[in-house]
Design a protein that fits this description.
The protein is mainly alpha-helical. It has 18 helices and two strands.
Length: 332
């Protein structure tokens, strides 16, 4: 009875993991040890649902450790650890904590050492190398995955991310759209494809399409703080909608209080302050926005570094620099 329940959980969790494709390697390990694979599947579901929550990484880590303690050659567990390490080092977009991706590489390569034909591990390795700026290695890993054979949606998504880096936007767009058009039931893959569209359309200067793609992401994942926060960032730096950036940024933090969300909202609030300062009659209102921004992020130098890069927020950098100068001399 216990084995039957474990097998039922595997089938359920694989459907929740939501990939039409099931790796032959996964099939091998689920048949080899159903109970261990059920634990692995629980960890995988948790990682699929991760949107920046550290407690989910800790929970997945506990499950994966328990798998490897019982079978140190359980290849799928090493692959999932690769994902976990990538998530743990993530800052935003293509930025990761220094040195955080090395453990991910070790773990993924370990899964391939155990299972040389683990195509899905090569797919993940391609993603990792793209983010490590090892584009040649990334391409080799993705080609290897194709040669072995896999229908995992991340193959197209990881190819697309690499193509974006190489400024092959048209080809990248086709890859992202393929995932959307095939109606993958993997929610994270579908959301990532929509996110990819925002990046491609941004580089193609098609800002209305960027906005529409962000709205689709939010409609698809309304409980994701990152979805609202990313839209806030676009509205501020790319669309000149400061009020919209503030509204979406506040929504993001109401779902989850995270560093990049606080920084983006602070940039928007400081920008609103800078704009209101142009009208002396609105000085009191401007100060309210400044105080709110300062409470969120009291590091004006970093705000200046960011806002000076974009034409719509250069005024923010200018006003903050003047504020810093007057503040340092005590003549505010």
């Amino acid at each position: 009875m216990k084995n039957i329940l474990a097998l039922l959980f595997i089938l359920f969790s694989l459907s929740v993991h939501a990939e039409e494709w099931i790796s032959p390697v996964d099939n091998k390990y689920s048949a080899k040890n159903p109970e261990l694979f059920s634990v692995l599947s629980r960890a995988r579901v948790i990682l699929d649902s991760w949107r920046g929550q550290q407690e989910k990484l800790r929970e997945a880590d506990t499950l994966l450790k328990s798998v490897l303690q019982k079978d140190s050659n359980f290849a799928p567990a090493y692959r999932e650890y690769g994902r976990l390490y990538i998530m743990a080092g993530y800052i935003n977009r293509d930025k990761f904590k220094k040195g955080s991706l090395n453990p991910a590489e070790e773990s993924i390569l370990k899964s391939i050492e155990i299972e040389p034909n683990y195509a899905d591990s090569y797919v993940l390795l391609g993603h990792l190398y793209t983010n490590m700026d090892r584009d040649i290695d990334a391409k080799s890993a993705l080609v290897k995955a194709e040669q072995i054979g896999t229908n995992i949606p991340w193959l197209h998504l990881n190819w697309a991310d690499l193509l974006v880096k190489q400024k092959q936007y048209g080809e990248a767009l086709k890859r992202y759209q393929h995932v959307l058009e095939t109606s993958t039931t993997n929610r994270k893959a579908y959301s990532s494809a929509l996110s990819g569209l925002t990046t491609v359309y941004w580089y193609m200067n098609q800002y209305d399409k960027v906005s529409e793609a962000h709205k689709k992401i939010i409609a698809y994942e309304p409980d994701s703080a990152w979805s609202w926060g990313n839209y806030s960032s676009f509205l501020l730096f790319g669309y000149n909608d400061v009020d919209g950036a503030i509204t979406n940024g506040q929504k993001a933090l109401s779902i989850m209080d995270y560093g990049m969300g606080r920084f983006t909202l602070a940039c928007a609030l400081y920008t609103k302050w800078a704009l209101l300062l142009q009208d002396v009659k609105k000085a009191d209102k401007a100060q309210q926005y400044f105080d709110e921004a300062w409470a969120l992020y009291p590091y004006p130098e970093r705000i200046i570094e960011k806002t000076i890069q974009y034409k719509y927020t250069k005024i923010t950098a200018d006003k903050l620099q003047k504020w810093l100068t007057s503040h340092s001399t005590g003549t505010r």
